[in-house]
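User: For my dataset I need records formatted as: sequence, then structure tokens, nothing else. Please produce one.
Assistant:
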Amino acid sequence: MGISFSIWKRILKHKLEVKVKTKLFILALFLFNALSFAQTLNGQKIGFVNTDVILEQFSEAIKAQSDLDAWISVQTAKRDSMTRALQTEYVGYQQKFETMTQEQIQAAQQSLVQQEAAIKDFEQKKFGQGGEIYQKRTELFGPIELKIRNAITEVAKSEGMNFILDKTDTLPVLLYSDDTYDITFQVLDKLKRGK
């Protein structure tokens, strides 16, 4: 025997009531959290800065980027030179292959494999994760980033701001902003004046 229609009706009504009550509870919880957050920010002054703009216009950052680009060019040229040498040796190997002994073939192949491994090792050492490029960037930009953070802190304190967010194009931490609270150029001015 099946379940009667009236029982199904009561079960479905109960499930619907539970869903509605659950949704109302979640909505109430969300509103409570939103109001609590709004109360927390009541009276707080929030500003933002665009560090991309600062890095593009601050002379020390421009110089550091130029130095990093020059270092990358040197390393890329070294890698390209190694690659051309490997290609030249490979072409020579292909041209002489027919006249080579088995021992010469093995020696040439081993040399090609070693050169290829050396290129991969060079790329990993220079450009890989945690490679010299990251160390060079930290060396060049570390002091500049510290200056920028210090300038942001000084401007924020002088403007009486409680929070500063970063509005960069590459990794935005801010979805909306009123330009009234943008302190980017004040920070850039402080950096340029060196005070």
